[in-house]
Amino acid sequence: MSHHTTDYIGKPTNRVDGPAKVAGTAKYAAEFNVPNLLYGYVVSSPIAKGKITKIDAAPVLALPGVHQVFSHENVPSLAWLDRSYKDDVAPGGSPFRPLHDAEIKFSLQPVALVVADTFELARYAASILHIEYEEVAHETELAKHLDEAYEPGRGKTGYKPPKSRGNFGKGWKEGVAHMEAQYSHHAQHHNPMEMFASTVEWLGDKNLNIYDKTQGAFNSQQYVMKIFGLSKDQARVISKYTGGGFGSGLRPQYQLFLAVLASLELQRSVRVSLTREQMFSFGHRPETLQHVALATAADGSLTGINHVAVAETSQFEDFTENVVGWSGTLYDCQNVELGYRLSKLDVFSPLDMRAPGAASGSIALEIAMDEMAYAAGLDPLEFRIRNYSDFDQAQNLPYSSKALRKCYAEGAAKFGWEKRTAEPGSMKDGNLLVGWGMGGGIWDASKMPATVKASLDADGHLTVSSGTNDIGTGTYTIMTQIAAQSMGLPLEAVTFVLGDTTLPQSPLQGGSWTAASVGNSVVEACSKLGEALLKQAQQMDHPAFKDAKIEDVEFANGQLRLRADDTQAVVLRDLVQASGEPKIEAENSTVLAKLEMLKPPKYSMHAHNAVFVEVKVDPELMTVHVTRVVNAVAAGRILNPKTARSQVLGSVVWGISSALMEESVMDHRFGRYMNHNYAEYHVPVNADIHDIDVVFVSEEDDKVNPLGVKGLGEVGLLGVAAAVANAIYHATGKRVRDLPVTIDKLL
Amino acid sequence: MNSFTFTQATAVADAVQANAAHDDAAYIGGGTNLIDLMKENVARPTHLIGLKKLGLDAIENLPDGGLRLGALATNADTAWHPEVEKRYPLLNQAILAGASPQLRNMATDGGNLMQRTRCYYFYDLATPCNKREPGSGCSAIGGYNRVCGILGTSDQCIATHPSDMCVALAALDTTVRVSGPNGERTIKFEDFHRLPGDQPERDNTLEPGELITGLDLPAKGFEKNFSYLKLRDRTSYAFALVSVAAALELDGDTIKDARLALGGVAHKPWRDKEAEAMLVGQPATADTFRRVAAKVLAPAKGYGANTFKIELAKRAIVRALKQATEMNQLVDTDAFQNSNP
């Protein structure tokens, strides 16, 4: 990239989509007011298990303005096979089919859709729809079903069962210091600000424009195509803006199915949006119960690691995530025993939620590491450094790069860790107990095949497009930066377009892979566009470029010019104008990227972080405040320090939330989450958040991908909750292993 | 939400009359709780009577040295009223501990008394609740009752009154002024809200159709020694697990007069006059406060998830009385605002 003069990569850059969002011109799925729109309201099951015995739709249908009540009794014949209902990230098993039959599988299951002229009428009509149920006993309590837990297979794309190595029993015996404990955390729901909604615009003849809240427009498209037998052209999915996802938009949610069903049946445009309560009716971070045992030799080196997790899943799918695998990678140890099991409950299938698996596993591992450090008489940071992994023992591969040492050093220096006194309760600020704790984590640096088109018009404006998403991560901005730098154009001369299935295909936005996947493809597409522009220059009989190869030229100041003599230049828009075409465009090829996916990796590619947390605890009231956090992150090249910092700030806030307040509380008598609203599902408010310092340590990596980026969506969350719990221990001497650490657990 | 009709009242008599003319009518002030209840189908009034044009939003000095809060004054205007800030700082603190600025800008003082419990089961039509549907049962007993009451509960209901403002109003011996079909009357604050007993559907002692017109604060505001301490799961926009309004009149180190009211623990702001009497004549020491706290919580009963509130309430009482004595008025949050190195 060295030949470019318009250097945007690595510079703090404001969000290009910021003005539209602030001014309210950015439209979300439920805001497309297409003509003659009908409104659907979802009726949810009050019971967790059983069946519907009667639906009395007649009084509702008699209301003027009500068009239809859809339920299992009148849904037309749709795709029959399970695989038609499987989306790109469906776990193994049999996907839930909305309104398929009378069976109730979980509380808040959608049982009917009332469609009316107005939202208000649909909501009222739904409230008087009389449905009778026959209830049967449900099971929702994980702790009561540990005996039935089983090892899941490789159902979900990307999931690998954890691999043990060495002999933990031997390692345990060799150890001179030991720890062993149980950890737990409860279910969490993503609860993005924007609730799930689909506006389906009926264009006639089964042609639909589907405005959907999703993290993957193509995933939604495939899903409705297969179920409703639509062609690609008939099912165009558009998702330009997403008001938060956190993983909840990875799978198509049932409002998409219901809105498309109603639109096709009524041959009208239909919108279905969920309520906040209904945001608790689908995927969530599964509750896990975990066991960790560690042993160390006299020098503090780990002689054995044992980490076993049991997680909930639904009766119909095996939702799997990597909870314990990280424990075999993050620290150096010969004897590692890992286990991961699922137990089926009468709940909806869990779903990936920011740093899925790792967020849960790091709670147990990183509190355990703190406990082990105390048992071994070592400082928690020093203990981690003594067990630093310079080689990925789990994959038996060298790291493509790993700057975790720098995270430890720079994070600790910024925090002032060296002033920490080890004894719990030994640090004070006036009457308040002060606690300093730390943690950290590891996340995959992935890259998926993604297609990007770069198109230069006769005004010299570059439009770069790809059907990816921006769930608030900054995709619009970083792709604009990359493209502008690649073509030597100012940011204003570049527009990045996303979120539409008529654009080149991209993977859904998840796994922290968008920056690497789409970002590198933007470079490739721009490079191909550069070749096309050079060819055009050569066709124009430009003597300077006659024999020039692509290596001989550069793009700068809106010009194509010779590297050796930058006075030899041609303005880019002149090239387009001379071509006689409205634009010159090029698309990258994903052939190599797809082949790359099939080959065994040569390197272990991961992002890392180290988190340092200060809490202050009132010694009588036991109120906890997280007063300072330093999160040092090694994630390869940072494309935009401003949006990157925002990502990590959000992660830290979420970590504090997980540590202190956030949980979906189920009443097992009803099999129902009871705190299903923003007032009672607690996440931090501004007053809960104090100093957060984000440090990006330098990490150059020419092996992970050409841009050297590792992605930032998840890594910042890791270790934060554990570090808070560890800091609380340091302040109070109380070791709480069941998160969140609410006030009642400290009294 | 049901369909409903709406009329805007311009005089108290009209409002009361409109109420009598409809079955299932409801008064609406700021609507910050009623609209939620209607959306959730917990409340289904067929007619709403708007109160915002009644006036009744003035805050005025009374001849006896007290202060009258118009029922339609907003919580925000009340908290920041110079007379309230100067003479009733306990009330100012309590109001500001509640809800969020946006809600306080809408919510009215009369409406604050009328807000209903935030017990999860009351809001979820899929679960039994005696308060919402008398005779259906109490799901909170034996269920997720972390937010529920520990004092004055019954086997029919363990819900709490969610207000912060009302805890201070109870401590300050406020009088509630009401108008109804049978004319005007006043209700002592301690008699306004009621315990659930076997009629948990009744939150208060208002007769059908009665409308709160104002709140009269007596002259004594305990502006020298007071504290409103609220403990909750996050620093703002969360209902109290336990809150304490403490007000003292001191003569040197000796307590001459005391008020103590608790929020988040009962179906009404919980005031224990015997405990207050125990404080009078005693030295304002931690020892005294601990004895009083033990006395207040002696009749408390935990229901599992909320049993911790008994110990938390004791500690909160001691702390609030200590803060009132020393007047180091650091609300929980403020203590951390400037503590970073």
TrEMBL record, chain A:
Pfam families found in the cross-reference section: Ald_Xan_dh_C (PF01315), MoCoBD_1 (PF02738), MoCoBD_2 (PF20256)
Residue ranges of domain Aldehyde oxidase/xanthine dehydrogenase a/b hammerhead in the record: 23-137
SMART domains according to UniProt: Ald_Xan_dh_C (SM01008)
Signal peptide (from-to): none
Gene3D superfamilies with a match to the protein in the record: Aldehyde oxidase/xanthine dehydrogenase, a/b hammerhead, Aldehyde oxidase/xanthine dehydrogenase, molybdopterin binding domain
Name of the protein in question: Xanthine dehydrogenase family protein molybdopterin-binding subunit
From TrEMBL, chain B:
Superkingdom of the organism of origin: Bacteria
Record-annotated FAD-binding PCMH-type domain positions: 1-222
PANTHER family: OXIDOREDUCTASE, XANTHINE DEHYDROGENASE SUBUNIT C-RELATED
Keyword Flavoprotein carried by entry: yes
Keywords: FAD, Flavoprotein
This protein's name: Xanthine dehydrogenase family protein subunit M
Entries under Pfam families matching the protein: CO_deh_flav_C (PF03450), FAD_binding_5 (PF00941)
